[in-house]
Amino acid sequence: MTSEDPAAKLRLLEKQASICVDCRLHEGRKTVVFGAGATDADLMFIGEGPGQHEDEQGLPFVGRSGQLLSTLLERVGLTRPEVYISNVVKCRPPGNRDPRPDEIDACKGYLIEQIKLIDPAVVVTLGNFSTKLLLKTQVGITRMRGQAYPWWGRHVVPTFHPAAALRNGERVVEEMVGDLQLAVQVIEQQPAPAPPEPSVPQQIELFS
Ligand code: SF4
């Protein structure tokens, strides 16, 4: 592996994040939950932030929401090792509260670099936080979902957070399956062109 290898660069970034103290969330974390999965995945998922189980195990989506996400992936013919999963913030907000704007702002550089290095054709945003961050919208997830949005040479497909499906039942589960089917269709029918290579500062500007 050379320093040019995206997987090697991703490992370096993870190492950097593992000692990050750029926001208050470092104070209560047990581990930094950087992300997991195929580092060359066509499909990347972005959730909100680690919960208790994720914080303890250092892996994203390992609790009940994670089990549901695995089931949803199976419904569209995919497995966890084939995709990459991460979150908007890499450290657990205390008591599983929502991440705050300054925490998201402090952490977003890691996410942008992850997307650049993994280079997925489709990013599925799980819930409001990742959807609003990437698409720079204030429109809620219920109205945003169900469509693929062109985004920096790839597509963003917003859907509900699995926790919402656990709360709201089968209707939300089926809508999420529909969104994942859409994501798979976009990958199969419309291979993403080579993304532009803006500098990290320019990309971060996107999210300001
Ligand atoms: S949440 Fe992100 S910015 Fe905040 S301490 Fe953790 S890794 Fe650093």
Features:
single chain; 208 residues; alpha/beta; Uracil-DNA Glycosylase, subunit E; disordered C terminus; binds iron/sulfur cluster
Per-chain topology:
Blueprint: H1 6-17, E1 36-37, E2 43-47, H2 52-57, H3 64-75, E3 84-87, H4 101-118, E4 122-126, H5 128-135, H6 141-144, E5 149-151, E6 154-159, H7 162-168, H8 170-189, H9 200-206
Parallel strand pairs: 2-3, 2-4, 4-6
Antiparallel strand pairs: 1-3, 5-6
Helix pairs in contact: 1-4, 3-7, 7-8
Residues 17, 20-23, 25-26, 32, 89-91, 103, 106-107 line the site of iron/sulfur cluster (SF4).
Written overview of the protein:
The protein has 208 residues and is α/β, with parallel strands linked by helices. The protein has a single domain (6-206), classed as Uracil-DNA Glycosylase, subunit E. 45% of the residues lie in helices and 12% in strands. The chain contains nine helices and six strands. It has helices at residues 6-17, 52-57, 64-75, 101-118, 128-135, 141-144, 162-168, 170-189, 200-206, and strands at residues 36-37, 43-47, 84-87, 122-126, 149-151, 154-159. A six-stranded mixed beta sheet has the order 1-3-2-4-6-5, with helices on both faces. α1 runs antiparallel to α4. It is globular and about 40 Å long. The termini are far apart. The model is unreliable at 198-208 (pLDDT under 50). Iron/sulfur cluster (SF4) binds at residues 17, 20-23, 25-26, 32, 89-91, 103, 106-107.
Q: So what's the CATH class?
A: Alpha Beta
Q: Mind describing the biggest β-sheet? A: 6 strands, mixed
Q: Within the CATH hierarchy, at the fold level, what is the topology?
A: Uracil-DNA Glycosylase, subunit E
Helical fraction equals 40-55%
The CATH homologous superfamily: Uracil-DNA glycosylase-like domain
Q: How far is the first residue's CA from the last residue's CA? A: 34 Å
Number of helices: 9
Structural class: alpha/beta
- Give the uncertain stretches in residue-range form: 198-208
CATH architecture: 3-Layer(aba) Sandwich
Order of helices and strands: HEEHHEHEHHEEHHH
Bound molecules: iron/sulfur cluster
For the biggest β-sheet, the strand order reads: 1-3-2-4-6-5
